[in-house]
Amino acid sequence: MVDVGSKDVTERLAVARAVVRMSAATASLVAAGDAPKGDVLGVARVAGIMAAKRTAELIPLCHPLPLSFVDVDAVVEDDRVVLTAEARTSGQTGVEMEAMTAASVAALTVYDMVKGVERGVSVEAVELLEKSGGKSGSWRRSD
Description:
The protein is an alpha+beta fold. The protein has helices spanning 24-32, 40-53, 55-58, 96-114; strands at residues 10-21, 67-77, 80-91, 122-132, 138-140.
């Protein structure tokens, strides 16, 4: 692991996004809560939050962090589900891995819960949207 012992403790925030592409018919099932496996969005949200809390166990050499906040928002659009994860902590290193892990696992959960309905579902565009804290200040993806 990288030595972060000399870094200042600051408020850290990161936001990440993952997209799960599917047919409009499958997206409608997800939006209505009528998928065969149940409430896709609720389960994906909880899976993402749980994953963020276990990031250091999943990603080698990642610092374990005391997270002060994690949330996953899921929005169903015409032919996709967009999952946006936010993680926060007060610490000596950032929370971008936690946010990206939350978004990724939430997306994989959506995939798992709809794969029986549609074979062509794909997980796309797992990306960091924003991070702040530490000496580097703030960063935001510009699309």
